[in-house]
Amino acid sequence: MMSDNYNKALVTGVERISAWAGLLDEINVYPVADGDTGRNLVISLSPMRQINDDRPSTIRALMLAARGNSGNIAAKYFSGFLSMDGPDTLAGAAKLGSRLAREAVGEPREGTMLTIFDSLSKILEKQTFSDNFTEPIIDHLENAVHLTTDLLPRLKQANVIDAGALGMFIFFEGFFKTLAGQNEEYRPIMQIFKGKLAVAGSFQEESESGYCVDMVLRADDNAAEAVKKARTDKSAVIIQERDFIKIHIHTDDAHKTKDRFESYGLVKWADDDLNAQIKDFQTAHSKQAIHIMTDAAGSVTRKDAKNFGITLLDSYVIKGETCIPETHLDPADLYDSMLNGIKVSTSQASDFERHQHYESVLSRYKNALYLCVGSVYTGNYRIATDWQSKNDPDNRMTIIDTGTASGKLGISVIASARYACTVSSPVDVVKFAQDAVENAQEFIFLEKLQYLAAGGRMSKTGAFFGDMFNVKPIVSPYATGAVKLGIAKNNKDQLKFLFGKLESGLKPDSKAMIMLEYTDNIGWVSNTLKEEIERKFPYAEILIQPLSLTTGVHTGPGTWGVAYLDIEAFV
Length: 571
Description:
- The protein contains 24 helices and 17 strands.
- By secondary structure, it is α+β, with helices and mostly antiparallel strands.
- The radius of gyration is 24 Å and the shape is globular.
């Protein structure tokens, strides 16, 4: 039976990777410079957040969740590593994990996370778990990460260490420090790997067409043929379990590949456009006067974060038995689950994970502006200010309690990030952000009340009678909480309310930003609603965004929202 201490150590490792995922994406050039190693590890290792003594269930969840080359290799490694339950079994578990990870890869290469797994196995074979046992282990892994640059030509050309290897170093430092009771004492990543954490300007990555595919097949009579076909791809990572097979490959045509594997019992499919990811990776951010970070409870996506150079701090959506960072969850999947009666809820990141985010940001940027979701909704503001009082003596991080969330927060963040690229003074950006938060407006239109009741936001009886009489609340996030602005009985009433508010707040020739937020109704929002707003406000900039999933869990399918910000009113 795995002890609580080992479970806690594993969770610590996962939380550290989440906090440093942005850096991993920035240096991800192998095997393809597509900037997704951090994302893939966050998604793939998320099942360990809920680890308990039912290790087979955790291992199965890891295999099914795994995304990308790095995520699938890591998942297979942990299927072996999770066999440990004490100091005497660590070396054997690490050795088993390393062997399983290598067997899963079509062409194992040194200089990747496989090298870190082997290094850990070797040091554990001769390590005694006496006082200060962590330092020799972490020294050994740090040296192994340094060596990756020279082991792979692509890494040497880019002058970086391997992203997956760094991710595993970050994980295992957290793991072993927690076992030793030292989980507040971490090595400064940006210093110990200094000079190897930014892709060289001379590095050129050619565009690569095709798709990065992850699929799950039933392990039936066709399994051997499916595996044989997949192994023809040099990038293949294949994980064979008792009742399913997980395959990761690269392919030129996702549709044809999906059709081909359908006959082998395809039960799950995900793909990423490699060319699009490489182009995103190559796009340099404009230099900002101050780095901006915010909570994903604002309607800001991972794509926005990448485009505008924003750091996003995730909350988590618990869907059935899975716990997923909200910006990594497909909105369509969430709302389908809710409509099918699957229980969903939200949870906050641990204090430790949030502290790691703050440390990561301040170690990578000269100064930062944290536009924090309103303190009435979460404890983020309190936790950030408490951390700052002990760890930021020079006040390099400015923290603003915005008093808001969802699109009202999101539109303020995006506008502030853009503004930060046009000025040189951090003070000017802070002032702009404060004005943006004060001037932003948002209207959220709910379809049903049952989801508010499910989350404890109102009584089930009230929700039942409200839905019976077609009561559709209109709410907006304020510093005191979600304020009810009115009710509507149908979509026509909702639109009448909306345009009454927009026309009283904006001039017809306004160049305001208007954010349209969708749940499971992207078609209506991005077509009908967008066209009507464009007709009335032809000079406005229209943004189409998914409603923050933290908000969506509580408001439910059918909800939509509109936020706007008239920058000319305060600049």
